[in-house]
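Give me the fold.
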Amino acid sequence: MYEQKTPFAKLAGAAALTAAIAMASSSAIAQDKTKLRIQTHFATETLSGELAAEFVEDVTTMSGGDIEIEMFYASSVVKSAETFDAAATGILDCDMTGGAYQVGKNPAFQFTGDLNGGYADPYTQYSWLLHGGGYEALNKLYNPQDMEFVGWWIPGPESLVSTKSFTGVADLKGWKFRAPPGVITNIFENLGASPIVMDFNEIFTALETGIIDGADASTIANNVGLGLYDIAKNTNYPGFHSMPADHLACRKDVWDAMPEAHQRIMTVAMQALGLKTTTKQGIEMQKAAAELRAAGVELNTWSDEDMAVYRKAVADTWEEYATTPEAKELLAAHLDFLKEIGAIE
C-alpha cells in the first residue's frame, strides 16, 4: 500500500542524506590530510633553524592546514647521521639533514649534496638540480633506499674554524678537527690533517675540552650561532672546502600516499627555502665576517697556490669514492653538466 510521506518525514530523509554526504565529505577531507614528523640537525637559534621554521609555516599556510609538520630540531630524536634510517623505518617521516651522512650505505651518497669544490656557488648547483636532471638522478639512488628526495637548501660555502693558526695547507699538519662522514675526511687526511667524525651537536664541547683543534661545521654565520668563535679564534673566509646541500627526503610510501597537490606544495616550498637560505645566508655571512674581524677573530683567505693543492686532493678523492655503479653514475651526471656549461674541461 502506498504511504504518503509527511513534510516532516521528507525533512528527516533530507537531513539523513545531508548528514551522509557531510560524513563522506569529512572522510574524504581526512584522507587528504598529511602529517609529517621531520628532524633537522640545526638548532632553533641558528639561521638555518629559523629558516626551517619558516618552511613549516609556508607549507602549513599553502596547504590551508592540510599538511601538518612536527619539526624536531637539533637532532633531538636520533643522532644526525641516524635521521635517514629513522625516517625510512617509521620513527620519523622525513629527514632534513644531508645525504653525505649515508656514505656508509653507498659512496654515491657523497655526491648527493657536495662535490667539495666542484660547484663554484649554490646557484650553479641548483641549476643542475632544476635543469640538469638532478631530481631524477638523485632519486635513482634514494628510491631503492625507500626514500624520496624532495629538495635542497644550500647555505653556501662553509668556513672551517680552528683554535690554532689556519693560514694555509701547512697548518693542516696534525690538525685534529671534527669532520662529517664522507669524502671530506679523505681529502684532509691526504693533506696531513686528522679528521674525527662526530655528531654535529658535539662540536662545541669537543672544542671547549680540546678534543679537537677545529671543526668543519657550517657557514661562518651558522658557526656564530653555534658559539664556535667564542672558543676558536681562527677561520677561513670566504669558504672553499665544502658547500653542502642539506636535503629533505621523505619515506617513499609516505610520499606516494600524499595527494599530488601536497607533493607539489612540499617541492615548491623546498625550492623557496633554498632561495631564502642561499640569499639570507649570503647576507648574514658578510655581516658575521665584519663582526668577527672587529672582535679579533682571524679571517684568512688561502692563497692560489694552497687552493691548487686542495683542488688536486679533491679530484683525486672523487675517484676514490666512485667505486660503485651508482657512485660512478651520479658523479658523471654532475661532471657532464659542469662540462656542458663550461665550468670544467
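The chain has two domains: 34-157+244-283, 161-240+297-317.
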